[in-house]
Amino acid sequence: MTYLEQFARNRRRREKTEVLTARIPESLYGDFKGYCDELNLSISEAVCLLVEREMAGNERVSGELAITDEYKMNDDVVDTNTKVVNKVAKRSNSNTNRFVTTQWQVDAQLPCPYCGQWLAATNFSRHAKRHLTTTQDIFTNEKFREKIKEMIQAKKAEILTK
């Protein structure tokens, strides 16, 4: 009989617990999880038993611990409701296309048709919010298309004359 088999189940501890996080290879985890399932132990309970045994050291030759008696086999076995929680990684929606403004940038700046200013392209979204709109709405709106085109031509001409 292995060490963990001695304690194949189960009354929960009444003592306050701490969370322990450990990283182990997938293959070892799978084997250990299967073994714990066979013994009707949760992984947490098995790790707790192993830690208690390690911390007791050679104090008890028999390998028995007074505090683990509650884990020993008994007739009133209680099933656990502990289930493995698989963390679901959030994936970005690959169907969305980010709106880019490179076609309207001149010297890393963008024209604002609302106020007639040129602003740094990196801060343009913040500026657009002041006009209660978005960058995409400004540059795709038909009513601003001509003004934006004029501002770009004027800026390019200004740069050429420098």
What is Rg?
Answer: 33 Å
Count of discrete alpha- or pi-helical segments spanning 4 or more residues: 5
Strand percentage lies at: under 5%
Silhouette: rod-shaped
**What can be said about the biggest beta sheet?**
2 strands, antiparallel
Secondary structure: helix percent: 25-40%
Structural class: mainly alpha
How far apart the termini lie comes to: 89 Å
Topology as H/E string?
Answer: HHEEHHH
How do the strands and helices of this protein lay out in sequence?
Layout: H1 26-38, H2 43-56, E1 109-111, E2 118-120, H3 124-130, H4 135-140, H5 142-161
Antiparallel strand pairs: 1-2
Write structural notes for this entry:
The chain contains 5 helices and 2 strands. It is mainly alpha-helical and 162 residues long. A two-stranded antiparallel ribbon has the order 1-2. The protein is rod-shaped, with a radius of gyration of 33 Å. Residues 61-76 have low confidence and may be disordered.
Notable characteristics:
5 helices; 162 residues; mainly alpha; two-stranded antiparallel sheet; 4% strand; 2 strands
Briefly characterize the structure:
By secondary structure, the protein is mainly alpha-helical.
